[in-house]
Design goal:
Keywords: Oxidoreductase. The chain is an alpha/beta fold. The protein has helices spanning 16-28, 60-71, 88-97, 132-138, 142-155, 173-187; strands at 3-8, 33-38, 74-80, 104-105, 114-115, 121-127, 158-165. The chain has a single domain (3-187), classed as Flavodoxin domain (Rossmann fold, 3-Layer(aba) Sandwich), CATH 3.40.50. The chain has 6 helices and 7 strands. The chain has a 5-stranded parallel β-sheet with strand order 2-1-3-6-7, with helices on both faces. Strands 4-5 form a two-stranded antiparallel ribbon. Strand 4 (104-105) and strand 5 form a beta hairpin. The longest helix is centred in the C-terminal third of the chain and has 15 residues, at 173-187. The protein starts with a strand and ends with a helix.
Length: 191
Amino acid sequence: MKKVLVINANPKSQSFCKSLADSYTLEAALTHEVKQLDVSDMKFDISLDCGYERAASLEPDLQYFQELVLWAEHIVIITPVWWGTLPAKFKGLIDRTFLPNFAFKYVAGKAFPEKLLLGRHSELYITLDTPPFWYKYLKGNAIYKQLKTSILDFSGIKNRSTTYFGPVVGSSFKTRQNWLSRVSKRAGQIR
């Protein structure tokens, strides 16, 4: 049994990402301990105004998010692509919580920080209003590079898989049901 954190990174309270997160959580909860976090329900200032120069106090929702990340063994991120990358509220959540001495630690005399979230793995589900092929190969796949390399790898979380769904806009009910089924099936295969 794994400790699974499902993050719905869409700041809208009702979205296809929410449906995907709910489907994943429902299936995974049959065999694992699962907690779901919907960014739309969180209240916090998204701006890291002082960078890392001065520690800012964390709002309760940010403290809770850090607790969930430390608790989790498997982290599922379900996010839309907005303007080519992450929604601002989700990026703000990462900016405010994946801080030095939580996600990484600077080490004197070393070029690269120590990764503090080792031992965890992730999977990504990305929704788009454009065809995935076009986004990945012609637009540069910025969201994947940002999440996998600049955030997850940097802090020690190993990404196991990335799945794209799109275009969501204009998709049929049947297509969405197939996508939800794929997510449920994957949730039943966590190892």
